[in-house]
Amino acid sequence: xxxxxxxxxxxxxxxxxxxxxxxxxxxxxxxxxxxxxxxxxxxxxxxxxxxxxxxxxxxxxxxxxxxxxxxxxxxxxxxxxxxxxxxxxxxxxxxxxxxxxxxxxxxxxxxxxxxxxxxxxxxxxxxxxxxxxxxxxxxxxxxxxxxxxxxxxxxxxxxxxxxxxxxxxxxxxxxxxxxxxxxxxxxxxxxxxxxxxxxxxx
Amino acid sequence: xxxxxxxxxxxxxxxxxxxxxxxxxxxxxxxxxxxxxxxxxxxxxxxxxxxxxxxxxxxxxxxxxxxxxxxxxxxxxxxxxxxxxxxxxxxxxxxxxxxxxxxxxxxxxxxxxxxxxxxxxxxxxxxxxxxxxxxxxxxxxxxxxxxxxxxxxxxxxxxxxxxxxxxxxxxxxxxxxxxxxxxxxxxxxxxxxxxxxxxxxx
DNA sequence: TTTTGTATTAACCAAATGGTTAAATCAATT
DNA sequence: AATTGATTTAACCATTTGGTTAATACAAAA
Lengths: 202, 202
Hints:
The structure is a homodimer. By secondary structure, chain A is an all-alpha fold.
């Protein structure tokens, strides 16, 4: 099973799967090796230690989670077009890897210190400050209602992310099956945009 | 250090602290014992196994997280009063124990099967179906706009919960210190109510 | 005071776990 | 074919970890 692709990649793929589903503390090196179909020693041969391997997986994950946000945020575009663009793009990103936000959030909660450093060195670090300035300006201009830019940012992200990280509990409470919940998620982009615009429209 | 209170309670308190901060996989029985200031054997003497102890902590946690929601949801009250009541009450609950939702959500993601059973046997199981029926009725009556009750529910919960579970990352991106972020959370009740009403008002 | 049942502890145990190593395999080079 | 360097593996190691046990401390009842 091992020879098909590059062993290094094979390990990373397996590590992603195990770390993301079980977390750093719950992941077992043996399970990663099994998943990759190789000997456990290879993990250390290529990546030294569990922590080193985890760091690679985590960095890529956080890049995807906040990077996607930053990409749209930094684009030059009128605010009233940018907001739906952010929502569409961000929900698309989450749907591609619905388990990533939970993984990232949880590991960050486990060690916030290590994270803060990493965040600022992140190339995709979202330039939120500019975005918030735009919101304030638009408010003064009367393009939108004058709202707290921080609250607006939190609202957008909350509405986009939570339905995915809270999926098991929400699905349980709402008593929906997978197919039904998927349909609800399909509508999300439209709904979130609607909600945000209802709140900020003059 | 052990004699002050009942040893059993002492253990539960310590177990809560350790399990909630580190999760099931990351928690160490020795750490719980140390936290309680007692011998590790006492944990097994009173609660058999790590899993049994965890179950107690987890059940209480999930009770708080979804129970609080159910309490308000099941109250007899006009919809337009009930929605702000839900929001106020739920955010109050989260602020009392901001780490609980993350803990519950994460552990549920780890073993969704075990959870689904527990959910239905939960005494505080929120009667969301009735609440959703009320929303549909109110829509038809014209009290509110006709919106998907499922989406409304998701919106409320998302806006309330996410800013707390995503706090480290949000605070990092927004570059706010603890005091500033606390102030933002203070305003949350008002903002969430505002957003929801803006969306559902006719 | 003695007895008796409960609470508590130190020492211990077996399994799991991250990590290492020495030998073996493989592939390219000479 | 022989050499050489990288890759891979089985076996091993030290530590950690959940759990047990036998002996002890303690408190209430007799």
